Amino acid sequence: MTQPTRSDEPIWWALFSAGGVCFAVLIPGLILTLAIAYPLGLLPENALDYAQIRQWLFSDYWGLAGLVLVGAGLCLPLFHAMHRVHHGMHDLMLRAGGWGKVLCYGSASLLSVLALYFWYLGLSASYPP
Question: Which of 22, 40, 79, 114 could form a disulfide with 15 if both were Cys (CB 3.0 to 4.6 A apart)?
């Protein structure tokens, strides 16, 4: 009896589904708030004041809201999109092989690290030494 080969696909499918949930739940809420409710005057005038948003994203609860927004609003949807690109290349019979996986998931990883780095810069600027 032969051992089944191990695959890294469950990791990518988990990130794909988590990113899809964030796309379906978080992004429409942000669009509703930032692109519809605020311009129509349904929110108070100072609801999106820079100082207030900065405090909420970086100061309250050690910047946890900013981390959640960056992680759920950028990082997970990046993996969702790049997983679609990777499997779309496969569906189009573009045999990308290992380099396609490295290109897709590597770019999602790199952009996620950059987003988290910029969040950290904003967090460290909120707590001067």
Answer: 79
